[in-house]
Amino acid sequence: MGTQQVLTADAGAPAAVRRALSAWLCELECPLEQRDDLVLAVHEAVANVVDHAYRDAPAPGSVVIGSEFSQDRDGSRWVTVTVTDRGVWRPVPEDNGYRGRGLQMIGALTDWRWIEPGTDGTRVTMVSRVCAPARRVDGFARLPREPRHRCSGRPRTAGGELARL
Q1: pLDDT tens digits for range 4-41
Q2: Measured between alpha carbons, how far is 118 from 122 in angstroms, rounded to an integer?
Q3: Distance between CA atoms of 6 and 163, rounded to whole angstroms?
Q4: Residue among 34, 54, 72 at smallest CA distance from 148
Q5: Which residues pair with 78 in a beta bridge?
Q6: Of 24, 36, 138, 161, whose CB count within 10 A is highest?
Q7: Is residue 90 classed as helix, strand or coil in its secondary structure?
């Protein structure tokens, strides 16, 4: 199960990706904290494309965001997101000034990340393990920890409470 989105790499792209990815992760019932971490990491990768990949191009190029959900036999749930451009890789400068922390942030917010710069663009792959959704018992969902969902239409409850679905 997955999605793909192709956008113009302009100032509106990061916000569009945040909205679409957050909605998709809500459908998968990903826990709030993990969803927010992954959305922020992907936002940063897309913002890097907007800021750097097409810097010397006469017009913005495209950015392709692919997302995939998988579940291992042991029940582990994984989300993989790729951000791909056809621009030029910009090596990290020695003196980043007040900027240049995006790749570190992506690494801190995801379980794994790979960056594949090439002559025809760059691909950033981010993988996060996500916990299983709330268990359903007789029409109720038991939420074992802090609030898990901040999706429209979802109940907001504290740890251990039951919420009617």
Answers
A1: 999 999 999 999 999 999 999 999 888 889 999 999 99
A2: 6
A3: 37
A4: 34
A5: 70, 129
A6: 24
A7: coil
Calculate mean pLDDT across residues 144-150.
47
Instruction: Please tell me the distance from the alpha carbon of residue 18 to that of residue 25, in angstroms, as a whole number.
Output: 10
CB 46 within 8 A of CB 105: no
> Does residue 66 or residue 90 have the better pLDDT?
66
Q: Rounded mean pLDDT of 64-71?
A: 94
List, edge to edge, every strand of the sheet that includes 112-118.
Answer: 2-8, 62-71, 77-85, 121-130, 112-118
Q: Residue 150 contacts by C-beta under 8 Å, 6 or more apart in sequence?
A: 32, 35, 156
Q: Scanning the structure block, which residue is given the tokens 């268990």?
A: 135
How far is 3 from 83, CA to CA, in rounded Å? 12
List b or e across 78-115, with b for residues whose CB sees 16 or more CB atoms inside 10 angstroms.
ebbbbbbbbbbeeeeeeeeeeeeebeeebeebbeebeb
